[in-house]
Amino acid sequence: MGGATADAGPGEETGAGSGATTDAGTSPAPSPWAGPADGSATGLPAGRAGTAGYAGPPPTTPPPPGWRPPVHLAATPARALPAQDMEAMDAAEQQAQRVTWSVGAVVGVVLLVLLCLLCSRALF
Question: Biased composition, Low complexity: where in the chain (predicted)?
Fold first, then answer.
């Protein structure tokens, strides 16, 4: 067997990453989620152990005064849109609304007929 036993009681850890020793008496590999081995609270490498926190981004050099990106193409001015015929648009909207209501009425009648057929089949 050589591993930790599977019949651990409540609150007891099992498995290789739990810190339990094996039957041979050797310790398993340390958990990758364990704290630093030397007991320090920061967990930073030895060269950076004295710094604390985030030092911020590195400094930047501002561009020279008056600097602008080069302009290769100038945009053309916007053209005038054609005039809209409001009466024709209203007539088209009314026609579309009539078609929508007609299709809805046809679908409603078909569903009502199907409902009546299904209810008559269930009752008789």
Answer: 19-28, 45-55
CB 21 within 8 A of CB 27: yes
Cα separation, 22 vs 116, in Å, equals 75
Closest CA to 2 of 24, 30, 27, 29: 24
By the 8 A CB rule, do 29 and 19 touch?
A: no
Could you report the average pLDDT of every consecutive run of 10 residues in the chain (124 residues)?
50 49 65 68 56 82 86 88 95 98 98 94 79
Q: Report how far residue 78's alpha carbon sits from residue 80's, in angstroms, rounded to the nearest whole number.
A: 7
State phi, psi for 104 to the nearest 5 degrees.
Answer: -65, -40
Range 89-117 burial, b when 16+ CB lie within 10 A, else e: eeeeeeeeeeeeeeeeeeeeeeeeeeeee
Cut 0.90: pTM above it? no
How far, in Å, CA of 44 to CA of 35, rounded? Answer: 11
Could you tell me the residue ranges of all domains in the chain? 94-123
Q: Residue 17, Cβ neighbours under 10 Å: how many?
A: 14
